[in-house]
Amino acid sequence: MLQLPGPFLRVEGLGRDFGRFTAMDDVRLEVGQGEFLCLLGPSGCGKTTLLRSIAGLDTPSRGKIFQAGREITRLPPSERDFGIVFQSYALFPNMTVAANVGYGLRGPAWPRARAARRVAELLELVGLGAEAGRYPAQISGGQQQRVALARALANEPGLLLLDEPLSALDAIVRLHLRQELRAVQRRLGVTTIMVTHDQEEALSLADRVAVMDRGRVVQLGTPQEVYATPANPFVAGFVGRSANFEAVVAGGGLRLPDGTHLPAEAAHRHPEGSTVRAFIRPEDVVLGGEGPLSGAVTGIEYLGSVCRLELRAAGLNLQAEIAPRALNGLALGDPIPLTLPPGKLMLFARHG
User: Fold this and answer.
1) 318 and 199 in contact (C-beta within 8 Å)?
2) Which helix (H) or strand (E) holds 36?
3) Distance CA 104, CA 151 (A)
4) Whose CA, among 242, 259, 272, 301, lies 20 to 30 Å from 24?
5) How far is it, in rounded angstroms, from Cα 58 to Cα 219?
């Protein structure tokens, strides 16, 4: 595959208005060749509008899109180099699995023998070689989604676009297909952009994640960066689980509403006396220790490999995650000392 000197896909100041409503505003992205990028955000944040603009299914109100050095902003979909998979699969029910995959393999570039080889190759790649002669109604939802993926890849596109491709599947199938999707993408090296509202899906699949909120990309980084160092309170609250509370910066730490003082390494980044919103992940809350908090268990949720505890301490609602064997008879209402490690508290200015 030809390696380009710059990004394979570049989006510059893209915006889309629907009357007075702005669905997407000043979006700027660069996607490297072979990269897997997830567009992550809640419903209505603009991620699908961005994907449709890249595909040519929606025309942006402003901005530019470049693919492989060529501006494609206003090209029709037929003149762009991409394959796309939708949530609904959109398979032809009267055509076999093989015919669905090979539907777009026409013209002088795809003589019959070459097209047949390509279809067979892709069906083997997605584990459906034995299903070639069956019809969509005769295979499972997960298998139908694999057919849709194979069809999107049939023309050897430079760009693969995925619009919530796994959301209609049950949890076990979704997890399995997620792993398969990543394996196929790595094997083929195809540049991929996927829309999802599922944070676990984005964090497990992507090389980088673009978190969107109200039509803008509010953070772009690796899954580790987005999770560990969120750019603002929205990202901290949307990506992963966390408890949050307001406090006042005081004495190199935080003063809680009940007067309790918490050490916090990030406090030095904020003015003394300012109000901040603090976030902490459940896995970072330590049960026991020498911290200043004494809490009570208000809820216990068993999740198989982990137990999630709801806790109340110093007027705060917190969560902690522990292994089931660590419960040791802990019950609702039991008192328990807590420690919020100073280096794990994420702080943001109240209006940040």
Assistant:
1) no
2) strand 36-40
3) 8
4) 242
5) 24
Q: Report how far residue 347's alpha carbon sits from residue 352's, in angstroms, rounded to the nearest whole number.
A: 10
Q: How many helices (H) and strands (E) does the chain have?
A: 8, 20
Strands 307-313 and 286-287: unpaired
Q: Which of 299, 268, 295, 280 is nearest to 341 (CA)?
A: 280
152 within 8 A of 163, measured Cβ to Cβ = no
38 closest CA partner among 229, 192, 189 = 192
Q: What is the pLDDT of residues 208-249, one digit of tens each?
A: 999 999 999 999 999 999 999 999 999 999 999 999 999 999
Tell me what pLDDT residue 171 has: 84
- Please give the mean pLDDT across all residues of the chain: 93
How far apart are alpha carbons 147 and 62 in whole angstroms?
35
Asked whether the beta carbons of 274 and 348 are under 8 A apart, the reply is no
Do the Cβ atoms of 120 and 132 come closer than 8 Å?
Answer: yes
Statement: residue 173 has pLDDT above 80: yes
State the Cα–Cα distance between residues 74 and 340, nearest whole angstrom. 52
Report the C-alpha gap between 152 and 102 in whole angstroms.
10
- Asked if residue 2 has pLDDT above 70, the reply is no
CA nearest neighbour of 136 among 151, 124, 125, 121: 151
Q: Would you list the DSSP string of 71-96?
A: E-TT--GGGS--EEE-TT----TTS-
Residue 14, Cβ neighbours under 10 Å: how many? 25
Instruction: Decide: residue 234, CB within 10 A, 0-12 exposed, 13-18 middle, 19+ buried.
Output: buried
Whole-number Å distance between alpha carbons of 105 and 320: 53
Could you count the other beta carbons within 10 Å of the beta carbon of residue 274? Answer: 14
Residue 40: closest CA among 232, 203, 225:
203
